[in-house]
Amino acid sequence: MSFSKASWMIILIPLAISACQRAPRSLLYPTTQQQQIDYLCRVVYEREFRRNAGWEESAPEFLFISEERVTYHFTTGQSTTIVRHPELIVPPGTYPCP
Fold first, then answer.
1. What is the pLDDT of residues 49-59, one digit of tens each?
2. How far are the Cα atoms of 9, 12, 15, 74, 96 from residue 2, in angstroms, in the given order?
3. Domain boundaries defined on the chain
4. pTM for the full predicted model
5. Residue 33: helix, strand or coil by DSSP?
6. DSSP designation for 77
C-alpha cells in the first residue's frame, strides 16, 4: 500500500465513524409512533375495511386521528373512517402517509 493510499484511509475512516455517530437515531430505527402511522396507512386495505370501497386504486394521503376514530383522506378526494384501536399511542392530529 502506498503512502498516499494510507493517508486517505487515515482521513476517511475517522470521518465515516464520526458521521455514523452523529446520525439521528430516527434514521436508523423508526419510532414506535412512526411504525403505528405506517401500519394505519396500510390497514385500510385489509379485507374487513375495504368492503364496498372505491379507494382501492388510490393511496391514503393523510390520516386524521381523533380520540375515537381514524379518518383516511385519499388522493382521489374520497375518505373513510375506522374505529381507533385503544392500544395506539399516536396522539390525535393530522399525519401524512408515507
1. 665 556 567 78
2. 11, 16, 21, 59, 52
3. 30-96
4. 0.63
5. helix
6. S
